[in-house]
Amino acid sequence: MAKLILNRLSKAFETGGRPAVNDVSLEVRDGGFLALLGPSGCGKTTVLRMIAGFEQPTDGSILLGDRVLADAGDMVAPEHRNMAMVFQSYALWPHMSVADNVGYPLKVRGVTGERCTAKIREALAAVRLEAYADRRPADLSGGQRQRVALARCLVTEPDVVLLDEPLANLDRHLRQEMEETFREFHARSGATMIYVTHDQAEAMALATDVAVMSEGRLLQVASPQEIYARPEGRLVGGLVGQGAIVTWPAASVENRQLDWDILQQLLSRSDGTECADILIRPQDVEIAGEGVPARVTSVLFEGERYALKLALGDEQVLRAFSRQPVQVGDMVSIVIRSAWRL
Ligand code: ADP
Ligand code: MG
């Protein structure tokens, strides 16, 4: 196997229109698990379909190791890419048993007999469905059907597994359970995985790398921790995790990681220096004795804590957590332990 490389990849569906995918360059290491994250319509599915071979790039190229899979002139057919795609709708055959559904890609490839049976058993074990081999899809829950679809894609031992919002049809509880299944599936199969989602929590929980897209463009690729702590720009900062973005006169400050000493200086500055966007995570806002005053404008009880919105000065809104109950309209004193200049 080898790494998957997208090299300045673009796709325009109509000539002259805004490209659905615009100059995307990206490398996914062999065995990596990349989440492609972005709002609906930003081009995620189009990227996936180009990787799978269902769509030809208008520009740029796709390589698996040093093998060119597609460029604007040439294209390797989908069935010769050794990739598997799992869709939001599981696309199972209703009249076939679970085992036959899973074995279907093998049958198409002419694999039969004991070897076929063994591979089906192995794939079903990987998604913990050994006991369900003889059932029909209609007799399974949504989560189990999704696991059958995963087993079916695993059975051909693909180099690359492409997943297009595979959990979008499941309820929250089942999604968490399936996230475990995906992580396990990735660990066991060793396949390179690309997982498309518009759900940032899902992307962060699952993948080893997150690529954030907006309007056809790639904004940032990094580990979930890096994207969370050091997002590049307002769009990524607003898309990933909770937090508030404030605009303060910080353009002349050198560091991007800001501590309370610097933030206090910024808060008291009203000179003409250019403003910068600063991201403040709620857990970095501490309600403490010796800070600056803020007014509570909203309180949401979340069980283990209260999620607050705070007004600082006339217009800046911060988010914070409190263990103690507070009321809308209360004045509190806050210290901002850490912030990130976008
Ligand atoms: P996402 O998966 O992020 O929601 P898509 O890749 O499906 O986004 O779509 C990106 C853009 O490309 C959208 O504006 C969509 O309308 C457009 N698009 C997608 N497929 C086609 C197509 N086959 N023909 C024309 N426009 C398309
Ligand atoms: Mg899509």
TrEMBL record:
Asked if tRNA-binding is a keyword of the record, the answer is no
Q: What is the recorded name of this protein?
A: Iron(III) transport system ATP-binding protein
Molecular function terms from GO: ABC-type ferric iron transporter activity; ATP binding; ATP hydrolysis activity
- CC annotations in GO: ATP-binding cassette (ABC) transporter complex
**Organism name:** Rhizobium wenxiniae
Question: In which family does this protein belong, per the annotation?
Answer: Belongs to the ABC transporter superfamily.
Keywords, comma-separated and alphabetical: ATP-binding, Cell membrane, Ion transport, Iron, Iron transport, Membrane, Nucleotide-binding, Transport
Q: Kindly give the Gene3D superfamilies that the UniProt entry links to this protein.
A: P-loop containing nucleotide triphosphate hydrolases
Which CDD domains does the protein's record reference? ABC_Carb_Solutes_like
Organism superkingdom:
Bacteria
Where in or outside the cell is it found?
A: Cell inner membrane
- Entry membrane topology: Peripheral membrane protein
Domain ABC transporter, residue spans:
4-240
Tell me, in one coarse class, where this protein mainly resides.
membrane
